UniProtKB/TrEMBL annotation:
GO terms for biological process: protein homooligomerization. This is Potassium channel tetramerization domain containing 14. It comes from the Eukaryota. It comes from Seriola lalandi dorsalis. Residues 21-118 form the BTB domain.
Length: 241
């Protein structure tokens, strides 16, 4: 019987199926020990696929199977696989890991928690009814960054049209602006209960979740004697330093 060639890089990158029921893992520098049956518990998960036959992972210098991912919340994933116990904290972070590893029972259970239920069923369902919402968020960030050169603040005009009736006044409203009309980013209209303020809260939340510091102020247009005033406009202010 020939001995394994431990110096072979190829054999280290594709080790044999573990003979021991205990598997040693290195997940982004976090070390774990678990049963092979735990990793294979849900056959359609990525973990079951990785350890279902010939393991598709490299090993580290100590022979642990290496998963190149931040392992900060992998322990909560293992805890669920072992005992069906949900984490008490860091729900969104664990949810991202569950999605990454395609552990469907964990995904479903986490989506039913209050922390995610409101986000997924309430807020995200509302935002899906706001035309081009995600694209507009990216446009706002792109414009703000372009205007940040040698400036402490970037100010962008946004227009929020709550109803189809508001949309009918859009051209007149934009023409009443003294600011650059080409750079106005427009949200709406939408068919859902949430208000304009709810939409503005979402815009602020989603931009700040990307690491930016912003605030939103109403843009007041001076009303002339013969013209109508419109309350569709807001200033979105990015603060850089």
């Amino acid at each position: 019987m020939s001995l394994p060639d431990y110096k072979s890089a190829d054999k280290q990158s594709a080790p044999a199926v573990p003979h021991s029921p205990v598997v040693q893992l290195n997940v982004g520098g976090h070390l774990f020990s678990t049963a092979l049956s735990t990793l294979r518990k849900h056959p359609d998960s990525q973990l079951a696929e990785l350890f279902g036959g010939q393991p598709k992972l490299r090993t580290d210098a100590q022979g642990r199977y290496f998963i190149d991912r931040d392992g900060s919340h992998f322990g909560a994933v293992l805890q669920f696989l072992r005992s069906d116990q949900l984490p008490a904290e860091n729900i969104q972070q664990v949810y991202r890991e569950a999605v990454h590893f395609n552990i469907k029972p964990l995904i479903k259970r986490l989506e039913e928690t209050p922390q995610l239920f409101g986000e997924l069923v309430g807020r995200q369902q509302f935002l899906s009814r706001v035309p081009h919402y995600k694209e507009n968020i990216e446009v706002l960030i792109r414009i703000a960054r372009a205007e940040a050169i040698a400036a402490r603040h970037s100010t962008i005009m946004i227009c929020v049209l709550r109803t189809e009736e508001d949309l009918g006044f859009y051209d007149n409203a934009v023409n009443s602006l003294e600011a650059d009309k080409e750079s106005v980013v427009t949200f709406g209209p939408w068919k859902a209960v949430p208000s304009v303020q709810d939409l503005l809260d979402c815009v602020k939340t989603d931009i700040e979740s990307k690491g930016y510091k912003v605030n939103i102020q109403p843009h007041v247009i001076e009303k002339s004697f013969l013209s109508r005033s419109y309350n569709f406009f807001y200033k979105l202010v990015f603060t850089w330093w």
